[in-house]
Amino acid sequence: MSRKLRWGIIGCAGIAVRSVIPGIQQSETGEVAAIASRGLAKAQETAETLGIPKAYGSYEELLADGDIDAIYIPLPNHLHMEWTIKAIEAGKHVLCEKPIALNAAEAQRMADASRSAGVHLAEAFMYRYHPAYARVKEIIDSGEIGDIRGIHGTFTFNNAADSGNVRYKREWGGGSIYDVGCYPISAARLLLGEEPVAASVHALLSPEHDNVDMMAAGILEFSNGVALSFDCGMWAAFRNTLEVLGTQGRIELPSAFLGSNFFVHTGEGTRVEEQPTLNQYSLQADDFARVVWGEKQARFAPEDAVANMKVIDACLESAYTRSRVTL
Question: Taking the CA of residue 288 as centre, how many other CA atoms within 13 Å lie in the half-sphere pointing to its CB?
Fold first, then answer.
């Protein structure tokens, strides 16, 4: 298609360089027109490597560029609100990396700013745009696995040796609940179509990593006795799974957030639900652009990000106080 949404990237974070920028470049609707860093040399190096036309040595210069339609923000979590609101005030649409903010109050300020300015704000949970999740929801709604009795999700990896990583700075929004626990939390809310009423989380708080939660295991209580049990970590072997357990069967996603085939187990046996190999970051960019252009309604309004942050707030409070927290 000839029409393109012109993206500017604030920061040269790994997620941007490895995944989001290539995803936008491979999308049907987007082009990456500019990138900014705190230093011009870093921006120029990244721009040259990825074939981005313009590079800026400050975020402010990028926001002042009238040729940019939308901004992607992969900055450390504590900078999300500041630069999202500055981008919104510059008249830009914003895709902000997950978690959208440090807490629900910040997320609400961001949502309010986007509404007031009439721009699109989205949280970058790329997995939600893969058709696998629409298919999982379809199977649940069909009744094939019976009534839902529970969901279990995991997302763990081991990066603990990188002690200077921003994930290990507590004031910057470090920790595994912020970084990867947010995935099973958002997935349970998505599949159940409701919000939890309480959270109980136990965490490994590591003094050598600024006392962030390097591993956490928790339960979110939903209605009718249904719960999400989850664990997340940055000091454990890699896995990212989701299981939806019903009275008559279960759905097993062995690579729940990175896109893959999944399995349906019932009394009739096990079948593979084959999924197309798609770039989830491209799907996210295309959905974003079509909302900006008024071709469709946003599937996930900013209020969804606020709701997800309320759950994360409760999980963190529970982990640090060792108590059950009601929402």
Answer: 36
